[in-house]
């Protein structure tokens, strides 16, 4: 915890340094009367592209994966040690839940991020050895569409991980959902009441109009 703030600042600075070059250059490209955005061929003009992407995979995937595996393995060992020293902790099931969460986080990370980086690494190594064939480039480009989707899908899975792993987060989400449901119900009840009042008013006006017409006919 002593160095946590400094480490977080360093990591965010590293991520920003990696993504900043993408922010200062155009991502779109006109091709055969259509505009493409962030497609791999748009980046092939960059000098030393294989070295840049391999370095990005090392810094952005391999090193973080190693850190995650090391840290979570240390946490798991500590949890096992605590369970041995204190049987009550093991009976409560807290350690088991924490270990299951760790395993789930690692599996999700590997499934979501590995295919994209494996595709990049193998294609860049091949590109350094010899220029890939046109068919290989097309396969690589198509694989990026699916692997980038899978990588971004991780953002959708993270809230569910936090929901089931963290009681505080779970309580906050449920409170927001209950508040939203109560607002929706009260809004629906209010609109129903207003509609009923309007219908009653229209009915009353119709009755009054009919009675007025009846009196005029009698005269």
TrEMBL record:
Q: Which domain of life is it from?
A: Eukaryota
Quote the PANTHER family the UniProt record gives. G-PROTEIN COUPLED RECEPTOR, G-PROTEIN COUPLED RECEPTOR 183
Spell out where the chain crosses the membrane: 7-28, 48-72, 101-125, 145-165
Location within or outside the cell: Cell membrane
Recorded GO CC terms = plasma membrane
Q: Which UniProt keywords apply?
A: Adaptive immunity, Cell membrane, Disulfide bond, G-protein coupled receptor, Immunity, Membrane, Receptor, Transducer, Transmembrane, Transmembrane helix
Read off the InterPro entries from this record: GP183-like, GPCR_Rhodpsn, GPCR_Rhodpsn_7TM
For this protein, what is any one GO molecular function term? oxysterol binding
What is the species of this protein?
Buphagus erythrorhynchus (red-billed oxpecker)
The protein's name: GP183 protein
Residue ranges constituting the G-protein coupled receptors family 1 profile domain according to the UniProt record: 1-162
Any one GO biological process: B cell activation involved in immune response
Cite the Gene3D superfamilies for this sequence.
Rhodopsin 7-helix transmembrane proteins
* Membrane disposition: Multi-pass membrane protein
What Pfam families does the database record attribute to this sequence?
A: 7tm_1 (PF00001)
- Its gene name is Gpr183_0
């Amino acid at each position: 915890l002593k160095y946590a703030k400094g480490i977080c600042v360093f990591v965010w600075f590293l991520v920003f340094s990696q993504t900043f070059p993408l922010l200062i250059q155009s991502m779109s490209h006109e091709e055969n009367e259509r505009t493409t955005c962030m497609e791999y061929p748009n980046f092939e003009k960059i000098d030393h592209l294989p070295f840049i992407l391999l370095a990005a995979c090392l810094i952005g995937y391999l090193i973080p994966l190693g850190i995650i595996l090391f840290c979570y393995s240390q946490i798991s060992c500590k949890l096992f040690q605590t369970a041995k020293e204190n049987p009550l902790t093991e009976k409560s099931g807290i350690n088991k839940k924490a270990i299951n969460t760790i395993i789930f986080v690692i599996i999700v990370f590997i499934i979501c991020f590995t295919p994209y980086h494996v595709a990049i690494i193998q294609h860049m190594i091949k590109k350094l050895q010899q220029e890939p064939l046109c068919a290989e480039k097309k396969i690589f480009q198509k694989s990026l569409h699916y692997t980038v989707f899978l990588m971004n899908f991780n953002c959708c899975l993270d809230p569910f991980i936090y929901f089931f792993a963290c009681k505080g987060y779970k309580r906050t989400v449920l409170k927001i959902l209950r508040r939203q449901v109560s607002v929706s119900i009260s809004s629906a009840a209010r609109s129903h009441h207003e509609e009923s009042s309007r219908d009653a008013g229209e009915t009353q006006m119709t009755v009054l109009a009919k009675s007025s017409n009846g009196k005029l006919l009698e005269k």
